[in-house]
Write a structure and sequence with these properties.
Blueprint lengths: L6 H15 L1 H4 L7 H17 L4 H8 L1
Length: about 60
């Protein structure tokens, strides 16, 4: 069964709604420890993409 709304958009709306209802969860020092999970999230997104860039391409961009 196909939803009439995009799954990403639905998840985004649910996340925004949860953040409005429970802001203390993501606040500094909250349950999620945003000062740590933010850094881990950035690493999780950008580290794998780093492996797809070859050394030759990086060297070519910097010369």
């Amino acid at each position: 069964m196909r939803l009439p709304i995009n799954g990403f958009l639905l998840g985004l709306l649910i996340s925004i709604g949860a953040a409005c209802i429970f802001p203390e969860v993501g606040a500094h020092g909250g349950i999620l420890k945003s000062e740590v999970t933010t850094k881990l999230g950035v690493i999780a997104i950008f580290f794998p993409s780093r492996n797809f860039i070859t050394h030759r391409k990086v060297k070519k961009c910097h010369t």
